[in-house]
Design goal:
mainly alpha; Anit_sigma_mycothiol_RsrA; Znf_put
């Protein structure tokens, strides 16, 4: 028997829901890998972490697909924003704000 739920979707329709926890049940480390994707893209992870992330990406098509999306977003941002500099006044205000935040957190 088929019916509809509160969203109007029938039982036979597959609804997309965001992943909670691991992305791929066969790879329980997926959530941690996805959280570290930007450090790999930005070259900010250790050699050990980089190697672990790359190994996982080679074995997990779901995470590799996510990595590819993030890589395209990063490249798009770099292409669209290259060469632009924030006005000096804005840059100075940001430096001051970052300094205050660092002092408060480090204090």
């Amino acid at each position: 028997m088929t019916g509809t739920d509160s969203t109007g979707a029938s039982d036979n329709e597959e609804r997309w829901t965001p992943p909670i926890g691991p992305v791929d049940p066969e790879h329980p480390e997926c959530a941690a890998v996805i959280a570290e994707v930007w450090t790999l893209l930005d070259g900010e992870c250790t050699v050990e972490t980089r190697d672990k992330l790359r190994q996982h990406l080679e074995e997990c098509p779901t995470c590799l697909r996510h990595y590819g999306i993030e890589e395209r977003v990063k490249n798009l941002i770099a292409t669209k924003c290259s060469g632009e500099r924030a006005p000096e006044g804005l840059r100075e205000r940001l430096r001051i704000q970052i300094s205050r935040t660092t002092i408060i957190r480090g204090g």
